[in-house]
Structures are given as C-alpha cells and as structure tokens.
Amino acid sequence: MHSAASQTPAKVAEPLRDDEIHLWWMDYRREQGRAPLLAVLATYLGRPAGSLALVEGAHGRPALAAPHAALAFNWSHSGERALLAVARGVVPGIDLERLRPRPRALALARRYFCAGEAAALAGMPPDTRDEAFLGLWTAKEAVLKAIGRGLAFGLDRLELSVPPAPLQLLRLDGDDAGAWQLQRLAPDRAHVATLAWRGAPRAVRLRTLVADG
Q1: Residues 157, 169 contacting (CB under 8 angstroms)
Q2: What's the half-sphere exposure (Cβ side, CA atoms, 13 Å) at 128?
Q3: How far apart are CA 60 and CA 77, in angstroms?
Q4: Which of 124, 35, 132 shows the shortest CA–CA distance to 77?
Q5: Are 196 and 94 in contact (CB under 8 A)?
Q6: With contact defined as beta carbons under 8 Å apart, do 25 and 207 qualify?
Q7: pLDDT tens digits for 129-142?
Q8: What is the CATH number of domain 9-209?
Q9: What is the value of pTM for the model shown?
Q10: SS3 string of 29-84?
Q11: Which string of b and e fits 52-81 if b means at least 16 CB within 10 Å?
Q12: Residue-wise pLDDT tens digits, 152-168
C-alpha cells in the first residue's frame, strides 16, 4: 500500500483506476456525521459535497444515489479514527476496531463464531488472543458489509482461516468463498482493520487525512 502525508482530499485525490481500491485514513468526530465521508467522495466526482445524496439498502448499507451510484464505498469508525474504502466495479466492505483488552473475547467467539475458530482462539496465549479475535471479527464484518448485510446474517455462516495461517475466507453460506479477497490493514499501532471485496485482486492505495500532532 502507498501512503501520503496528511492533506485535504482535493489535493491528494487521484483518478480511481478500475483495478484499484482507495483507502482513506481519517479523523472522525461523531458530531460531524457523514460530512467527512461526503467531502472525500465529492473529490472523485468533481461535485460539491452538498449536492451528493445517500440511499440505504435493505439492511442499512449506505450508497450514493443516482447518477453517482457507480462509485462504491464503505466506511467504518472507531473512537476518533475512521477508514473509508472507495472503488468502482466492486463493492468494498471495511471494518475498523481499536486494539484494547477484550476480556470476553473467548466467550463471544464461542457464542458467535464457528466452532473451529473458537477452538483455535482458545488454544492461543492470552496475550495474542485479543488481536487474533479482532482480526477475525473485522474480517467477518467486512465481508458482511460488502454483501450489504449486518450481524443478523450470522457470524457463524462464514468461516475464516485463523492465525498464523494467511487470512482467507474458507466458507460463506450461499456464495463461493474462493471468489473473495480479504486484506488485513494496520493503519496505526492502535487499530486493526480488514478490507473485503468479491472479485479479482486489486491494488490497494492508502491515503491519510489524520491531522498532524
């Protein structure tokens, strides 16, 4: 992935190629709502952010309204940071989580994950289990967001490889797991994230809008 220094979207947005996915690492404030998201999307469309409209799918996934629906995006925020994925020709899903102690990680895995995933987590040293759990969680959420579904779909209906194996979707009910691409992301030392899309491999380009200092 390629990174750039902190700048405004208008200064760094490049043409989005059909074989790329652009990622934006951003500051996030809840009171701003979707304004930062629309500001970045507007740079790709050459339109004022205020002229863009969003619509929601059957399960709440936002998308750009016509005539801009061909520009697909997904974003996720945790604390004061957000990640935005932008693409054409595929629908990206992305999930971001802050690294912190998760004392209920194993209990959650046993309740919601596949049995093999939960067993693998149970066999890990406690000091590595939390990050592995979040890696699985963000990957599952990213896939669900890419298909326009939420947690109600069922986290046990998709199965993932478990570290130290390379990240891979092994099973997805109703779909061909081999058609999916998953990429682990580490935008900084305090967060873990996963990007997912259905289709051929693509180059992933990372830009940052995190304020200096």
Answers
A1: no
A2: 9
A3: 16
A4: 35
A5: yes
A6: yes
A7: 999 999 999 999 99
A8: 3.90.470.20
A9: 0.92
A10: CHHHCCHHHHHHHHHHHCCCHHHCCEEECCCCCEEECCCCCCEEEEEEEECCEEEE
A11: beeeeeeeebebbeeebeeebbbbbbbeeb
A12: 999 999 999 998 899 99
Instruction: Give the integer Cα–Cα distance in Å for 84 and 99.
Output: 19
What would the pLDDT profile of 96-120 be if each residue is shown by its tens digit? 999 999 999 999 999 999 999 999 9
Query: What tokens does 69 get?
Result: 């629906």
Q: Could you tell me if 195 and 138 are in contact, meaning their C-beta atoms sit under 8 angstroms apart?
A: no
